Amino acid sequence: MFKSWRLRTRLIVTYVSLILLGFAGLSLLAGNQIAAGAVEDFERSLQTQAELVARNLREPIEHFAEGEGSFASMQTAVTSLANDFNLQITLIGPDGFAWLSSDPAVGNANFGRDPEVAAVISGSRTVFDTRDNAQHVPTIYTAVPITEDGYLFSVIRVAAPASATASVVSQRYLALAAGVLGLTGLAVLAALWLAASFTRPLVNLQNSAMKLAAGDLTQRVPVDRQDELGKLAETFNHMAEQVEAMLLEQKAFASNASHELRTPLTTIRLRSEALRDGTLDEAIAQQYVAEIDDEVARLGQLVNDLIQLSRFDSGRAEIGHELIDPVRLGRSLCQQMEQTAVAKQISLTFAAPNQLPNIQANQSHLRIVLQNLLGNAIKYTPTGGQVTWRLSQEDGYLRSDIADTGIGLAPEDAARLFERFYRADKAHTRATGGTGLGLPLAKSIVEFYHGRIQLQSDGPGQGTTATVWWPLPKS
User: Fold this and answer.
1) Taking a C-beta distance cutoff of 8 angstroms, is the pair 460, 408 a contact?
2) What span, in angstroms and rounded, lies between the C-alpha atoms of 443 and 336?
3) 86's torsion region: left (phi>0), alpha (psi -120 to 50) or beta?
4) Average predicted confidence (pLDDT) for the chain
5) pTM to 2 decimals?
6) Domains of the chain
């Protein structure tokens, strides 16, 4: 049942339970100390009263012992003091026998064996003893001596009902209970405030998450604290920004993909309709057929790139473990691209050390990356330009730098060329047959293998350098 409660309720119940348990333990400990302290205070007060009684009776007892006073006057003095102090007072001789008391029922009983009297007769410290009196009422007894020149000639025993101690203890317990209840109330209020301060950000987070799930991508939660809840709010806001960016990217991707598919399909439809009429010259008809072939090839490349991207995005692609000689692969790709470079009178140079460590990858994945970068360098370099490809080893990575003297990049384009379907020069890119997916696919593959890729350019007309860091196998 506890798990079905709201978090705030659980926090409040937990806090209040801990507070009550803590106060109960403290009250029990304090109560025992209060009871012991009350008894000790009462005994100290009783001893003080006994000493006052002894001081008041010293002179009458001395006079009585010298025959100067009557028994009746002694009885009157003892009774008066007993009434004043609300005590039972008994005068006991050194032999332990009582010879006068404020309670006539005491008579001449022998109290020499009672602990408080025996302690005085033996000269020990003051003793307090609690026992039932003759009427079976719990009573506290103590005694003090009256001496003259070191000679004990009388013991003053006083007695008070033990209920007086209980009354003091009860009063102190009531004061303790009032204090505990007051502190408990304050602690409960503090627990309510603390639970609210903990749950309020979570409630805000829950409401924002529900609105975000309902499609409101602008939802954010305020970050007004630096603790774990503040970090959670920051994480949620970052997640919301990522979700918003991802959905906007998906919308843009769908729009761009449909546009990229519609353009060649439109060309194919128009050319096929013209060919179906049968009224075209042979040369124009052949040109239209060639254009249809080009658009079909472009569509095939576009679909293939989309399939590859989806595999890497979904994690369905598998990391290859082939050992590949990067120098041999580089020379092979340069030979493959040489005819295109020669046709544009571009100088294609490949430079690498004689010995470089093999890299681990799926060769088709690596070829996609390098073919895209090398192909772009040749494609966007004007006639008579230069393309230089260098391989080197750097901090546990194989570094590939493909530099060209081509059209270069504006700073705003260099940062966005890895976005899908983004084109720095849309007219030129479409004229050269680009799909707008080559660089995003290359980036997905490189990062899939835990590598890095970047484009650098000093600006339009200043050429571009594409750099890839591919991790080397750990020995």
Assistant:
1) yes
2) 22
3) left
4) 83
5) 0.51
6) 2-167 (3.30.450.20), 228-314 (1.10.287.130), 322-471 (3.30.565.10)
